[in-house]
Every structure is written in C-alpha cells, then in structure tokens.
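Question (not urgent): is this output format expected?
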Amino acid sequence: MARYVREASGYLVTASALVALTAALAPLLDDRHIVDVALLYLLLTLVASARWGYGVGIATAVAADLAVNFFYVPPLHRFTVQEPVNLAGLILFLCVALFGAYMLSRLRDQAARARAHADETVFLLQATRDVVRAGSPRQALDRICDSLARAASARGCAIVTSSPPTVAGSTIDSRSAEALSRNELAVVAAVLQTGGPIRTKAENAGGIPATFVPLPASRDGLLRFAGEVPPDLLARPLVQALMNEASAALERMRLASEAERAAALERADEFKTTLLSSVSHDLRSPLTAIKAAASSLRDESVDWSVEDRRTLLQTIDSQADRLTGTVSNLLEMSRLEGGSVRAHLEVIDVSLFLEEIQLALQHSAAPRELQVAGGPGLWARADYGLLTQAVTNLVENAIKYSTPGMPIRLDAGSTPGRATIGVVDGGPGIPPEDLPHLFEKFYRGKSVSGVSGSGLGLALARAMVTVCGGSVTVTSGPGGSRFEISLPVAAAPA
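Got this back:
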C-alpha cells in the first residue's frame, strides 16, 4: 500500500513539474533552443526516475518527449514533425530518457537493497550479541524470541517444544508466555508432521490468533508467533537466520540439560561410592558389637554373671546409639542437600543459648570443663533447633580431637551486622593441609587415628548454619582451634 501511495505522489509531482517547466520555458524559447530545452526535460526525467522508480521515469520520459514536440519543434502546438532531423532528435531524446530512467531506477533499487541488507546485518549482529551475553540458555531463547518478533513484525513470539510440551523461551507479552493449550498441542503435531506453517484462530473472543512455524533442523521445536505473519516475512533471510539460531540455541539448551543430568547422576554415584567407603566401618562396627553381645547373652552354655550381663547390655545400648547417630547424620545430610529443610528463623539470646548448650553437654564433656564467656544483650536470628545441633556437633568434635583434660570454651561476640558464637579447644591444632577440606563430607584428617566418626559432623554443622543464613569458619594453631559461627544480628524483642 505504501508503495502505491509513493508512486502516485511521484506521478503527481512530476506532472506538476512538467507543467511548471513548460509554462516557464514555452513563452521564452523557440526552436533555436531545442537542445537546451531537451536537456532540461531529460534532467527532470532522470530526477523522477532516481526518486520514484522506473514507472514514473517512463511516464515522465514520454510526457517530456511529447512536450518538446508540441511546444518547441516546428510546426508548434502540433504533434507533427516537418524536418526529419527533428524527428530523429525526438526519438533519440526518448531513447536516452528511457535508458537513463532504467539505469537510475536500477541503481536506486540496488542502493535500497544494499541499505536493507546492511540494516539486516546490523540487526542480526545485535541479536547475536544479545544471545552471547545471555546469562542462561532460557535468557538466550527469550532474546532470540524478541529479535524474531521484531523481524517478522509479530506481536510476540515463543519457542515451544512438543516433547515435553513446554514454552522454552518467549517475549514478555502474556500471549507468548502462555502454556500450550489442548488445541495448540494438536496444531503442534500437525506442523511437525507437515513441515509447514499453520495459522490458528483466536480461541476466545478477546484472544489473539497464532502462527506456528517449524524450526529448521529441530526434531520437536517450533515457533509460535502471536498474530498472523505473512509468508513473505517468514521467507526473509533475516527471519530464516534467526530461526536457525533459535534451533541451535534450543539444541544447546537440550544438551546442557542432558549434561547436567549426567553430572547429577555422576555426583550421585560418586556420593554413593564415597558413602559406602566412608561409613561402612561406622555401620559395620556397631552392628558387629551388637551382634556379638546379643549372641553372647543368648549362649545358654555360659553362666553370665550379673555384672557381665550389665556390661553386654551396655555395649548393645551404646553401639545402638552410635549406629542411630550415624544413620541420623546421613539422613539429615540428605535432607539438607535435597533442600527439604526449611529454617524457622527466630530471635535468639546468644548468651542464654550458650548457657543452655553448657547444661545439655556438660555431662558428655566430663571430665572436661565446658566454659561459657560473653555478656548478655547479644541477639541473633536463626533456627533454634538447627543452631543447637550445629553447636553441639562443634562441641562434640572438640571433645573428640582436642587434648584430654583441656577445657572447651563457648564465647559470644559481634562484628558489624553479625553475631558470632565461638567454640575454642586447647588441642594440638589442625594441620594446614587439612583446613581447606575440613567441612567436606566424610573427610577425616590424615593425622587422625584412633577416633571413631563418619566425617559428617562438621559438614552437617556448616549446612545447618548456612540454612540459617550464617557461615562457619575455622582458625587453628599450636595452642588449639577456634570454630566460629557468624549469624545475622537481630534487635532485642520488645
């Protein structure tokens, strides 16, 4: 439509220019100035051709030739020609005008195609940059959809897959982000089967129709344009290039997802192998002890004394507790890593909390002294149960690995915006090569010997504190080690 309007305006402008030029020159010039007049009309013809194309140029050339004949070639004001040389001149003028109009219109079309090609190249380059800068495969697909919607003059665009039926990427409009309806699933199957675009009607009165187009070199990917997209726009090289980019990005997303699943399976297999190798002893030892004590009690050929029976029952009880603790740690670590543990944050009085820890663990710490240092008035935000278990794990770790008889100190402190809880022992210190791996699951220091454990205590402590929004650090030297929990500080409750 715009093209026809532009051509019509070209005809109108050139006709007006011909009338104005003739009205200005005809009263002043005669047959002695035919060459000058012809050059002026030729110039007008070339300008019209360069500005509005070959059609307007032809019409201007013919009209200019007739005007020169009628107003300047004897006999005047007639379309007859007396002299053969004038007839030859008019024919030559028409030929030159037509040829010049053709050449200029071709040059105009080539310049227009060059500009369009340059614009498409810039557009495609910017779209590629946007995809490269995307932070995730989904963002890359979203940006490709933005570029496709602009290139195809559509209201929106979405990249969808048939298996599973998913919107893998879309523009920000609500229509494109919609999930595939039941009717659209049938359309998707038909598009993939036929390999051609299908246009659908709006599913409701206020809805928007859609155009489904299969992606090249994709098994189940296709585009869903919001609104109707003409076939000539879909056939543009720019749209085809963006469709190829969308197909490649969708395949990269699928490969990344498969690689992530493979990595997860590899991690799970590695975790299982590590679990079996790390806790087999911690599971087998208490089971063996329980089995041996129970078998001994069931042996009727031996007359066990009351003290012997008490010792065997105590062995069964303690080893069952040990086995329960190991299994509980494994289950708790699995829940923490699986994200099923949710922290119930509350405001905790740190000094009072440490006193409660002291009362709860002083029996298991005996004969060591469990000291508490830190004044009142320090409040932190954390999950009480998770924090209690984390500090208990750190204290039990200090009891196991520090020098026997040395006291263990719990202290409270603060830094800007943070409340700290320290667990300090008087042990020999941790070797520097063990410090980077101290909070890894199942890791036990190379210098540790004669101490039972699964290597999960510190890993659990860090995971629990992390869920509370805090962190755990350790510093160690020849005089002992300090494990410090940092938590968000909180205002005292009113």
